[in-house]
Every structure is written in C-alpha cells, then in structure tokens.
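Journal club prep, notes for RB
We'll compare a predicted complex against what the paper describes. Inputs for the cobalamin case:
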Amino acid sequence: MAQLTSRERMLRTINRQVVDHYPCCFMSFTALREKLGDNLYELTKAELGMGLDTMLFIPTTPRALRREHPDLRGLPVHFDPQVKTTEWREEVSGDYPLLHKVYDTPAGRLTTSVRLTEDWRFGNRIPFVDDYQIPRALKPLITEPHELEALQFMLRPPTEADIAAYREEVHVARAFVESHGVLLAGGWGVGMDLANWLCGMEPLMFHMMDRPQFVDDLLEMIHVWNLQRMEVVLSAPPDIFIRRAWYEGCDFVTPGFYHKSILPRLKAEVDLAHQHGAKFGYICSSGLEPMLADHLAAGLDMLIGIDPVQGRRTNLTQIKETIGSTTCLWGGVSGAVTVERGTEEEVRTAVREAVQSLGPDGFILSPVDNLTIDAPQTWRNVDIFIDEWHRTWPSEPA
Amino acid sequence: MLRRIFDHILEGDAPAATECVQRALADGMDPATILNQAMIAAMDETGRRFEAGEIYVPEMLVAGRAMQSALGALKPFLVQADLEPLGKVVIGTVQGDLHDIGKNLVALMLQGAGFEVIDLGTDVAPARFVQAVREHEPMLVAMSALLTTTMTNMSTTVVALRAAGLRDRVHVMVGGAPVTRQYADQVGADMYEPDAASAARAARAAAKRRPSV
Ligand code: B12
C-alpha cells in the first residue's frame, strides 16, 4: 500500500479501513507545546517533523488567553453582560490567604472562595472553572439547586464576534491541514467535568446520591450550552470532535446515573457531530470498565485516554473485546509513569503490550494523557517510544 | 436491629443508621456489639463490594458518611465502656499533591475497620507527618500520592521519620494510582496496598504486629 498522509491514516484507522501501519498521535504533549509558545500550528509541524501522526486542534486559543477556563479548550466562555464580578483577598494569620469571588447576576449571587496556596497559578484572580481551583476551594461556586438560575447567566452561547473569529480561524486552519496532510480536530465538548468544576468533586458525588435531580438539571443546563458551542465548532467542520470526560469514569459517577443522566445527552452530542460529518472522540482516562456498554450505545467513534497504569478499572483486553470492534481505541501507555519515568525496557515493553492488546486495527498509540516534564529522560523516552512504534509496524506493509 | 444498622450503612442512609444506633443503645445493647457486628461489618462489606466492582466511589462515600454519623452517636458510649480503638493511624496526601478522593476512601475504610484516624489532609510536608507521629503516637502512617512529580515525597517523609528517631515505632503504608509494591520498597515503606478495602485489611493485620524496621 502506498504511504498515506497522516490524515488519511488517522481517518482510515477510525473508520477501520486498511492502513499502511497503525498511527501514533499524542493526545496532549504539553512539554513540546510549551517549548513552542503554546502555538498549536507549530506543535503540529513539530510532531510531524518527529514522524508522528498529529492533528491541528481548533480553536487554537492558547491557555493564557482562556482566562476564565484554562482547562476547557475551545471557544471563549462568556457571561451575560449583566453579570458583575467582584474579587478580593483576605489575609489569614497562620494560614494561606484567601481569595473570594462574587458573581452578581439578575437571578442572584454566586460566590466562591479558594485558599491561595504557594503554587496558585492565577495571581489575585479566580477563573470561572479550572482543575487547580477545585482542591483549593473552600466553597465551590454551586452548592444548591436554586443557584442554577444564576448559573444560567454564566453559560451563554457564543457571541457573533466569537463565531466570526472562529470562521476566520477555520479558513487558515483548513489551508494548513490540507497542505500538511493532517487531521483537523475541534472541541472540547464537556459534561460532568464542568459540573465537577462548579460543585467540587466529593460534594458533587454526594449531590448525585442525595438529590440526583439537582445534578440532572445541572447536566441539562451544561448540555444545552454545550450543544450551542458544538454547533459553532462543527460548522468548520472538523474531521473529529473531542469531548473531555475525565470525571465521567466510575470513580466519579455510578453506572446507574451514567446510564440515566449522561448517556442520553452524550448520544445526542455524538449524533450532532455525525450530522456534521465529524467523528466523535471521548477522553476518559480512568474507571472505564462499567461504562463500556454505554460508550457503545452512545456511538463513540474513539475512546481516548486508555491508561494501563494510572487508570483504575482499566483492563486493556476487556476494553478491546467489549468495544474494540466498533470504537477506535486511543492511548495504551502511561505518559507520567512509563514515558516520563520509565527505563528503556519499560517503554518498549509498554508499547508492545499496548499494540498487542488494543491494536493493531482501530488503534492509535499515545502516551496517556500527557507529557509535561521537559527533562532529558522524557525526550530520550519519546525517541524510544517512537522507535518501538516503528518496530511494531507490519514487516510487509498491507 | 444490628441487621438494620448494617443495611442502612451499606445503603448510605446516615439519618436511619444513626437513629437505629440510638435506639439500640436505648434498648441497652452493648456498644461493642453494635460497633463490631453492625458497623464494622457493614464497612467490611462495603469494601468487599467496592473491590469486586459491585459498587463505586459515590456509593462508598455515602456509606462512609452513614458510618461516621452513626459513630458520632456511639462514641460517648464507647468511651464510657472504655473501649479502645484498634489503634491510631495518621494519614495524608504527600507534599505537593492535592488529590484526596482515594486518600479519603482509605481513611473511611480504616475508620470503618475500627481505627482512630488522624487525617492531615493534602499537601502534607514531611515535618507535619513527623509532628503528628510525635503528637498522636499512631501505629501506622499512611501516605497517598497521585502525582509522579511529587510521589518522591513519600521517601522524603520516611527519611524525616527516621531522622526524628520515629521510624521504628510506626508501620508505614503507601498507595495511590502511580505507586507500586516495588516503589514502596524503594521508599522504605512497610506496606503497599492497591485500594481502600485492602488497606484496611492490611492495617488490621499490622495492628497485631510490632513495627519492625
Ligand atoms: C480527580 C483528579 C483530579 C482532581 C482531584 C480532586 C481531588 N479532590 O482529589 C483535580 C481536578 C483537582 C486534579 C487536579 C490535577 N491533576 Co489530577 N487527576 C484526577 C484523576 C482523574 C482521578 C484521581 C482520582 O481521584 N481517582 C479516584 C480515586 C478513588 O482513586 P485513587 O486516588 O487512585 O485511589 C485509590 C487507590 O489508588 C488507593 N489509594 C489511594 N491513596 C492511597 C493511600 C494508601 C496508603 C493506600 C494503601 C491506598 C491508596 O485507594 C483508592 C481507592 O481504592 C486522575 C486520573 C487517574 N487516572 O488517576 C488525574 C491525575 C492523577 N491528575 C493528574 C494531574 C497532572 C493533575 C494536575 C497536576 C494537572 C491537571 N490539570 O490535571 C492537577 C493539579 C493537582 C494539584 N497539585 O493541585 C495526572 C497525574 C500525572 C502524574 N504526573 O502522575 C493524572 C494521572 C491524570 C493524567 N492521566 O494525566 N486531578
């Protein structure tokens, strides 16, 4: 078979067609991205230069500009213009200072407070939602059902200006992916992850058990917002649409709640992506096993983030057997444990085991979920990882 | 009544579990029997179901909450009857790491197994572990780590315990998603356990042994 472009290889893998060899596309590569000034065009070029498969993710807005939502890639998050925010700092003797933030909306006030630990990344500011803030929050933003009315003012659809800026970027991005032969990815969609950011993780689990309707209502609000954002992102259209769902595994959600409250909305989102001709990828790196039947029912095209080390209840063989004949599996090796810290032999063995259990058909190899440490061992192991990937290609190309 | 307390804890119904404990006490039931045959037994069963994949973290959290609430009602009677806990455990997530869902489950299961748990929270510096060991004289120090970048602080903590002359007075147990038995050996811990239920079993077994390092 003639050598395929990376885009062809990725799409054919997702569509379960014959490929020259199985692809290797890093789901995230922060260590490299940061070296390149958080420029996703440069990241794509650099990954191609390393011989990897890759994708251009749009919108490419860098993290520093996603001030209100650093961990939610994608279109800007806008509040209703009537929302007024106030922030202040409180010194606490003998403990970390506190930061408080108040959002005054026409439907009432929302408040949050965080402890300003030494490693707080945002100066004297609290973003709307973020991973760093949950474990430091003394009070999460949402604690009671009546607060959802106010929250509605924070979850506004994309503005005309956002849509125009996105369309402009699509033009450039399209030309780029065509000339480089790479995949165009769009996103991120979000569901339970946003609910966790808003409510805190353990409190949300208690709400789910004590007052499931509250969480269901919250998820509905997020779903409607998400669909509005998806419509815009999908207008490109990208080849694949990605939804983040790190907190949708069984360590956060019971399978029963997942089935009732997450699956129907997820399925509607998958269907929307399909209507626009995009494939749907779902990032979840832990607690997968009990949800696999629902992943199948939702019609996911790709399950992204399969981590054999840090992923709890993640059995590669079982995942392959249960959903591998229809869903493309993406991941297979732990980024933080194996690639950043492992020996050469550990990296090579992990790559071989990943392809044996998850591949070679319908499989995209990647460290999960990220490589963040810019250290010689990381780069050496990335070379070994890529070399072992090459060694596991078929000797006679298909 | 014991059966009902057991069931309410398993279902995570805190008010019902607490009320049943209060009624059992009012009926003159022996506090140790309530603790061992209903409450600890219910947490053992919770742990078994969690390990077997029959229940998940949210169910375990509400079972733990029910157990804690019922324990609140029972505690004064345990003190009166001079019933000692199985031992004390100091637990925390190591410095630089703020992940605590797993650590909290381990703390719950240890408490459910009959230990008095001193939870130091997250981002716990070695000096705080040392100070807590001095202050509370636990039989076990349990450390959790989820980040490879800071899991080396398990080793730093063991070194600090040694430097303070406390290492041979406590068992040290470690766990968390990136931690392995091999890593536990490397950092000088006595025990590694993969999850909260097995942690409680291992702690019970260790309570019968003297720390030996
Ligand atoms: C939830 C989560 C968070 C939450 C934590 C909330 C909280 N209150 O704990 C939030 C969103 C705050 C968070 C933040 C971050 N996280 Co995080 N997070 C996770 C996630 C998705 C799940 C962890 C979890 O709670 N699992 C559920 C519990 C029940 O499982 P567990 O902790 O493993 O515990 C069980 C066992 O391990 C064991 N156990 C645990 N502790 C102990 C202790 C003892 C003594 C014993 C015996 C047993 C034991 O028993 C438990 C139950 O049976 C993991 C992904 C993963 N695959 O693990 C990433 C993960 C741990 N996070 C990661 C990272 C990088 C981060 C961040 C640094 C960056 C980021 N944006 O994600 C931040 C910042 C953290 C900080 N320092 O402030 C990486 C770590 C990579 C690495 N270098 O090791 C992971 C692996 C994600 C990934 N795939 O890359 N995170």
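Talking point for the session: The two ends of chain B are 44 Å apart (CA to CA).
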